Amino acid sequence: HEGPRRVKRAWVIPPISVSENHKRIPHLLVQIKSDKQQPGGVIYSIKGPGVDEEPLGIFSIDKFSGKVFLNAMLDREENDRFRLKAFALDLGGVTLEDPTDLEIIVVDQNDNRPLFRHDIFTGHVVEGAEPGTCVLTVDATDADDPDTDNAAVRYSILEQGSAAMFSINGTTGEICTAQPGLDRETVGVYNLTVQAADMSGDGLTTTATAVIYLEDINDNPPEFTKEEFSMEVEEEAVGVDVGKVFVHDKDLAGSPNWLAKFTILEGDPEGAFAIRTDPYTNDGVLSVAKPLDHEMRDRFELTLSVQNERPLEPVVAASPRALATVRVQVRDVNEAPVFRENPRRVSVLEGAPPGTPVTTFTASDPDSRQLQTLTYALLYDPADWLQLDPRSGTVRTKRELLHPSAFLQGGRYIALVLARDDAEPPLSATGTLSIEILEVNDHAPMLQPTTAVVCGQPGRGGNVLLGATDSDRPPHGAPFHFQLSPQHSQLARNWSITRFNVTHAVLAVLVELPAGPYSLPLLLRDSGTPPQEQQQLLNISVCHCGRDGTCEDGALAAATAGAGITLGALIIILGSIILLLVLVVLWAAWARGRQRALRKGLLQSSRDDMRDNILNYDEQGGGEEDQDAYDINQLRHPELFLSRVKPPVRRDAPLSSATPLAPRKLPNSPSDIKDFINEGLEVADSDPSVPPYDTALIYDYEGSGSVASALSSIISSLTDEDQDYDYLSDWGPRFRRLADLYG
């Protein structure tokens, strides 16, 4: 092993110091040498930050002389030292010496001012704080070498107003109160200008602002703006604001130290008034809590007090202006009438006759100091049962009060009475009259059912459950009492009645009875006052008993039970049968008439000119099938029909109708056609053998078809059968229109 080499001193380079911001560039820092070769035979080089590493180009070396130069200004705050490597090589590139360290130290200069962390510092302190109460701390930094005075920062207050209320620690920057007497109401915010200087206060400086807010305490009591307040309010007004009482407080607006709380101390024992705080103005708002009555009391004198929501500081004395007097005048206004008893509940017996007094329903006028007259009217009387005296308010029945009725609600009849004064404008009030219709025992219980079937042997199903219903309401109904008619004492030998419950009883057979119908008169009585009773028949069919206690022959029992059918049921059954028979006969007659019409057809083989007939549409019987009601040929040539022995028979006449005694005399000339028609009409109307024309007329059916062509054929058809209608002009003004059409 080789021992450690001895390094020559010329190749060991001590640290080199150079000041930052050096302006003489380039600047020789050091010269390095090697003793291995003669001068000129060694090549020198350096490597490291500032040479071939960032930042580049700061240092350089003369490769032949070994001189190291500074080529740029240095900034200690960016790099406070550089560590380089120096190399020595021969001309062939062979290393002559081991690389050696070259350290360059940058010497600091005071080229940086102190910097505050914030431009504005804020702090809070309560008003009245003791001296020495610390509020906040300001701090600044200096980028220079902290081991030198270049970074030694000291603090001071340059400006804080006229009174030096705060002080600052020069080393730590802590700001504290310096004097007593901080009052938010006097000065609420302090703005301090603070300074930081390096070189222990003698170097570079910078400034910042410290804002100190004084926090409020309740050191000012609320006070009324004046000692007395006057207000007015109308009587009967509830919930309305009467007026405001004004206060002021120097404490911070909106805080609990400022918000006022009011109390009514005296003058309102009934609690007619209330006072609240306006959250925006902090004033007191006096309002009416209960209706005021001018006639009872027309003025009030209230004593009010005010205090804050948060108690005063103990050192603060109460203000004498925390009390005030409020005088309230109550104005008289017209008040509506009042029904003292509303609703008024009365009772009337059911069936009370018209004119029966019900009650006197009156109201009172609160305006005792005003002369007014009240009148009354019925505002609501749904059944029109009542009449009311408009002056006295007396209510009477107008008609008999019925029960039950759709106008009753829970057995009561509700009516509304209107009371109105004669003030200007008039006021009114509505009273409710509730009339209870007292039940009267006016109905006897009714037996249900009235027929029954029973086995004729006692102990083998010979029992019948009887029931009853009563139209009266309790207590005039059940319990019901069933008994055999006392007028027929012999019934008790064969039958017995025992109570089952309040509405039913059991009828039992005592001895064996032959089969057949029986009618038992029963006496039914209710529990009303006075009780109502009625004797009723129970129709019983007794049958032969089977083994299980039922009737052997159900059909026989049903037939025999038919004997117990009541007269009303029999009438209903007979009426239904008769109605059914009438409907069947009517349907058969209608079907037969329709069949005959279809069989006959409409003018099947007639080739008569359709225009030769005047259809009698007043009859509305058979439409165009009824073509021979009136034959116009009879009017045109009356002499041809004188030789007829048998006059034509009308279709609407019955088969037994008699023929006229003699034919009517025909008109002498066509101008008498009107009289001829009128005479024929009169004869037909007076003929008792035919029904009148206004009975059972069919207006919607005019036959199943028509062989007549359109009405236009009257003009357009020009055949050999065309006729001359000039004679229509001789028939008078009633046929002028026809003459114009066909003449």
How would the blueprint of this fold be written?
Blueprint: E1 16-19, E2 27-31, E3 42-47, E4 59-61, E5 67-70, E6 81-90, E7 100-107, E8 115-116, E9 120-126, E10 134-137, E11 140-141, E12 154-159, E13 166-168, E14 174-177, E15 189-197, E16 205-215, E17 223-224, E18 228-234, E19 241-245, E20 247-248, E21 260-266, E22 273-277, E23 284-288, E24 299-308, E25 323-331, E26 344-349, E27 357-360, E28 375-380, E29 386-388, E30 394-397, E31 408-409, E32 412-420, E33 428-438, E34 446-448, E35 451-455, E36 463-469, E37 481-484, E38 495-499, E39 504-509, E40 516-525, E41 533-543, H1 554-561, H2 567-600, H3 632-636, H4 673-686, H5 713-716, H6 736-742
Parallel strand pairs: 1-7, 9-16, 18-25, 26-33, 35-41
Antiparallel strand pairs: 2-5, 3-6, 4-5, 6-7, 8-11, 10-14, 12-15, 13-14, 15-16, 17-20, 19-23, 21-24, 22-23, 24-25, 27-30, 28-32, 29-30, 31-32, 32-33, 34-36, 36-39, 37-40, 38-39, 40-41
Structural write-up:
With 743 residues, the protein is mostly beta strands. Among the domains are: 16-107, Cadherins (Immunoglobulin-like), CATH 2.60.40; 115-215, Sandwich (Immunoglobulin-like), CATH 2.60.40; 223-331, Sandwich (Immunoglobulin-like); 344-438, Immunoglobulin-like; 446-543, Sandwich (Immunoglobulin-like). Strands 26, 28, 31, 32 and 33 form a five-stranded mixed β-sheet that branches. A four-stranded mixed β-sheet has the order 1-7-6-3, with no helix packed on it. Strand 29 and strand 30 (394-397) form a beta hairpin. The radius of gyration is 66 Å and the shape is elongated. It starts with 15 loop residues before the first strand and ends with a helix.
